[in-house]
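Appendix B, record 7
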Amino acid sequence: MSLLKVSPLVALLMLLVTSTQAETLRDPTRPGYGALVIASAASSQSSDLMLNSVIKSGSASRAVINNKIFEVGDRVQGVRITAIEINSVSLSDGRKLTMYQAITESKGN
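Structure tokens (predicted):
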């Protein structure tokens, strides 16, 4: 009898053993265990308004806020946009969004 011949029962047993071992291995491309915590923290910050850019073309002005395009009079998160300037956007609730605010603010203010 040749060494290369394996009985069907032994082959089935080897296949079952290798498949159960493969099930216990963790996929290395899956996010880590803390990924859900990070994702929920990031979603809570999404309610903050961030002025990404301002587009001016003649008399028309558009603002990109939270990666969406708005014009004067549009509402963003329920607040009306009252003015769009070169580096800022004024909102009806009194807030003023400025570009690069985190960079231009000094520490301690």
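Remarks on this record: Strands lie at 51-57, 60-65, 68-71, 75-76, 79-84, 88-91, 96-98. Residues 8-24 form the longest helix (17 residues).
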